[in-house]
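Give me the fold.
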Amino acid sequence: MKRNTVIAILLTLLALFLAAPAARAADAWLTSYDEAVAQSKKTGKPILADFTGSDWCGWCIKLKEEVFSKPEFGKWAAGNVVLLELDFPRKKELPKPLTEQNKKLAAKYGIRGYPTVLFLDEEGEPFGRSGYIEGGPKAWCANADAVLGSRPQIHPQTNYAVAAELAKQKEVPLLLIVEKDDDAKRAAAVSALLRDKHMIGLGGRMVVARVRRKGAGASSAASLKEVDDLLKQHQVKSGDVQIALVDLPKNTLLHSAAKAPAANELVSVLKDKLPQPKYSGEWLDDYQAAVSFAAALGRPLLLDFTGSDWCGWCIKLDKEVFETEEFKKYAKENLVLVKLDFPKKKELPAHLKAQNDGLAEKFAVQGFPTIKVLSSSAQPLGDMGYMEGGPVPFVKRLSEIVASGGKK
């Protein structure tokens, strides 16, 4: 065989090898919404739903060419989401059932333009959105990570000692979840448990610790010894996944189970054993904690997207409304307050910056101040901003939005 022929064959094989991840990424896109939901429930991964005009929309084509067709995106998607393409072509005809499905979903989610990328939970509820972003797969996936990070869920401590100290400070029980190995199916079940909306509603009433015995995510040996000592003290039997609810100050075991039960089973047990959440109307910066308080107390959320140290209208809103006794009294009795800051003169902790960026994307925030009013289950009810007249007209308008239940 001639040398040039060998080189040509090798180059062809190399091209096919390099193209394989992109091909796999393309093959990974589902077109059936029901199938995507089923896969989401099975894996615990959210759905990335791409509403696109694949053969006519310029920005859709750019998004596919620059991001979705790249190996980097395929690798990221495989580990993080279930892919769903909802196409609205003009030059080709889709099967009728698919066309009808896509039209119904566009109406359901209020899609007004393409491309629109929605992030959906396993029940099909949206928790974030995106679109075309410059910078290729790296920039797009970084933004998607921020959106995923804003998803309501319980964020457990991975070190028992830290979790125990936090539970003592907050005067709440500690829910201990011990995993004996890195079994992917078992880990996914625990992750799904921590994203269950009913579990989230209990998040403000306890501290959660999730520790593993071996593998890359394993806790320190010292931390595991403390866990073992605690379990032995209460004579809890070992299991693949262990659940223990402990009142540490009283050294009382409130509940234990050999394996992680279904969310509804655990919630029904925890409801009667956990204390009522303590919230006195202060501004929170942790969105997930605020969602937990809102669900537990049955109160709406007020999200204040603000530039606290540079935005003139934000500063006026703070002074004329939020810092007044009238508003504080109303909020203490009726709201859960969340401050989502975008400062210029100070630097936020990395986790808060990622959270706030993700929430700004999720709620399509275009400027500051933007006030988002959510229901106790974190569903959008309405928007507000700066209003003249102080706390009275502001509270009046806020009360109207809450009373309307999001209906215009």
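Confidence is low (pLDDT under 50) at residues 10-26.
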